[in-house]
């Protein structure tokens, strides 16, 4: 069965880079009009332009810091006005900060939780309001991680945030059901995006091992095949959750980790 999103409107946060961009591209190639929501207007517009040229759909770049209630609400309202509706939200924007708990700066801890947890809350709230107003419901996809179910050294804030998002996804599924809103979480293993490339030397320094060892032991050591998850693996799963033809899938988490975590 081919899953399509013809005519649907999907907002993807953090879509100027990495996984968010790959998901926006996959959605556009499946017929959706997409919104590239990211911190910087120029890079969001640039990605939107490339997606429109390649796929012939409408793509809109929107400057949105997901931690700003004002920017989130204004952005979602603009999308509803310009594109007619919001059918899909992918709450994907995120950062990584690596440090042992005893050295973790409180400001850094709060910033990470703000982006992942509060950002997902604010974007979900605004999009749910729109989905309820339209009467059409929708699909909310939360970007979790292997760290939604496992812990790693020196990633305490990230592990806390990603575990929290698993609970929040289930809460959305409960409250969204009567409005025909589904919510699911995707949990990738390591994918070679800028977020991960940056971590390799940082982890090597913090753990006192070589960069090769970080990749082989820390990042891929717990997988059964020693492989990175790919951008397309995750974009394909995000398409499945957005376009699945019934409401059977809600409150679920799909971990895509080459067997690092087995359920
Ligand atoms: P990335 O650094 O390539 O992209 C992240 C994007 O988020 C950037 O474009 C950045 O500008 C944007 N962003 C950051 N803060 C923002 C804010 N406050 N408001 C709006 N946008 C903001 O990273 P990525 O690897 O593509 O990560 C995307 C998501 O996937 C994150 O939630 C991350 O935790 C998750 N994830 C990544 C991996 C991986 O291995 N790469 C694994 C599991 C989960």
UniProtKB/TrEMBL annotation:
Pfam short name (any one): adh_short
Record Gene3D superfamilies: NAD(P)-binding Rossmann-like Domain (3.40.50.720)
SUPFAM superfamilies: NAD(P)-binding Rossmann-fold domains
Family, per entry: Belongs to the short-chain dehydrogenases/reductases (SDR) family.
Protein name: 3-hydroxybutyrate dehydrogenase
Protein species of origin: Piscirickettsia litoralis
């Amino acid at each position: 069965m081919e899953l399509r999103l013809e005519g649907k409107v999907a907002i993807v946060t953090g879509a100027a880079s990495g996984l968010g961009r790959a998901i926006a591209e996959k959605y556009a190639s499946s017929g959706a009009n997409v919104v590239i929501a990211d911190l910087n207007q120029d890079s969001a517009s640039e990605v939107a332009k490339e997606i429109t040229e390649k796929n012939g759909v409408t793509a809109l770049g929107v400057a949105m810091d997901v931690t700003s209630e004002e920017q989130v609400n204004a952005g979602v309202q603009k999308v509803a006005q310009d594109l007619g509706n919001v059918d899909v939200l992918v709450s994907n924007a995120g950062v990584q900060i690596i440090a042992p708990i005893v050295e973790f700066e409180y400001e850094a801890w709060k910033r990470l939780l703000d982006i992942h947890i509060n950002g997902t809350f604010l974007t979900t709230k605004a999009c749910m309001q729109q989905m309820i107003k339209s009467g059409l419901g929708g699909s909310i996809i939360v970007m979790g991680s292997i760290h939604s179910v496992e812990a790693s050294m020196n990633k305490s804030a990230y592990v806390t945030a990603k575990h929290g998002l698993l609970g929040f996804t289930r809460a959305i599924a409960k409250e969204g059901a009567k409005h025909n809103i589904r919510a699911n979480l995707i949990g990738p293993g390591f994918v070679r995006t800028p977020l991960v490339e940056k971590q390799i030397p940082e982890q090597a320094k913090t753990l006192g091992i070589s960069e090769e060892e970080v990749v082989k032991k820390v990042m891929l050591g717990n997988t059964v095949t020693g492989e990175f998850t790919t951008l397309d693996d995750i974009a394909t799963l995000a398409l499945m959750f957005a376009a699945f033809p019934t409401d059977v899938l809600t409150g679920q988490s799909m971990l895509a980790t080459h067997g690092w975590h087995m359920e």
